[in-house]
Amino acid sequence: MANWVRISSRSIGNHIRKRMNQGFIGSAVDINKSSGSSSALHGGRTVCDRNRRYLNSLPWNRATLFWFQRFKSTVAEKQQDSFLSSDTDDDQLSLDFPGGKVSYTSDMNFISESSQTRVPCYRVLDDDGELIKDTDFQQVSKEAAVKMYSKMVNLQIMDTIFYEAQRQGRISFYLTSAGEEAINIASAAALTEQDIILPQYREPGVLLWRGFTLQEFADQCFGNKADYGKGRQMPIHYGSKKHNFFTISSPIATQLPQAAGIAYSLKMDNKKACVVSYIGDGGTSEGDFHAGLNFAAVMEAPVIFFCRNNGWAISTNVWEQFRSDGIVVKGRAYGIRSIRVDGNDALAVYTAVSAAREMAVNEQRPILIEALTYRVGHHSTSDDSTKYRQSDEIVYWKNARNPVNRFRNWVQSNGWWSDQQETQLRSSVRKQVIISLIGLDIHNLHFFSDT
Ligand SMILES: Cc1ncc(C[n+]2csc(CCOP(=O)(O)OP(=O)(O)O)c2C)c(N)n1
Ligand SMILES: [Mg+2]
Fold it and tell me: Which of 185, 296, 302, 450 would bridge with 366, disulfide CB 3.0–4.6 Å?
């Protein structure tokens, strides 16, 4: 046993030394080579720039490199909480503890269970889809914006028709992404195809964005011979090796420790890619959430943990799920840089994921994103959400805070979209979805929904 520990710690040490010699770990903290696209943000005020200034002010050398890299993620924003002490060089006043000095205090203060104010939510578009003045955001080209909007509509229509197919008894189960279309599509649009996705289950739009066809979705839900899982999985458990999208697994949160491990392998192979792992607010109560985040932080793995906080975990609302200020505050506890974003604002999601990806890949670190949104549909076809939540609440989120309409308003206000294109798109997608079902030789198809 002792021998094994000696050998394995020697090989980990060798790995670190090898990476340092290759400049790999060095490049992760290379203050001169920071992320390329940061200047693309309006105003150029980015986390990376602020970090670079902070790094420049520090005395550092190669010997302190590894130590420094382990802790830099906690200094990103330099937010001073009242309970935090200022740095001191006086050894009498501080405890030289493994991992860094801790200053002493004579005041016996418990850290408050909550801060005075909640972490704000980053957004770019107001509720009507108008650009908020002086906001930092990543510009999107006309082509990209139109593609993003079209894919959101694709997702909406696929959901409506597949949901009805389940109600008609043609498939055993279905689960919609209604209300979370912006999260699905805008996060996918900000990534490259080399980035590896580990989904929870309410993110089929990521696969749709990457080119998984409507027929492939239908084949999986019907569990026919064209389904890659050969019908062994429940409907909606999609997966595609070709699209770097791991197969969905029913036990929630198991994907998080796996994501940290896969990201660490990307790091060891010196790949310019990251892992993106999605999780719901309910999933964060699983032990695997802790394991995944802690592992990723310690190993400095390039992974984005994307939490869709949609207010509900089946019938359990967030207040009954946790008493923290959502999920975003948990990042700091693990030493992970984090942001809260409006999940119903496609431009905000796109910008946040672009910046997170840049930091994850260029600085080799995990990032946590909490996107605030709302599950407009029932949890699944096995659920009736009106039994545990107010209809008014659902209607409010469905209409007043609709992410698809909001993004459409912005695209249309740029002169990139018209009512005529809208009608054409909806009727063409509807036909394509129905064709994907006709191909399965299903008879007496009737879909009446106004999609
Ligand atoms: C390990 C595990 N525990 C419990 C369940 C049952 N379960 C399925 S979905 C779900 C709620 C998940 O809620 P959330 O993570 O918020 O995702 P959402 O459905 O809101 O998108 C639960 C508890 C499960 N699938 N796996
Ligand atoms: Mg949820």
Answer: 296
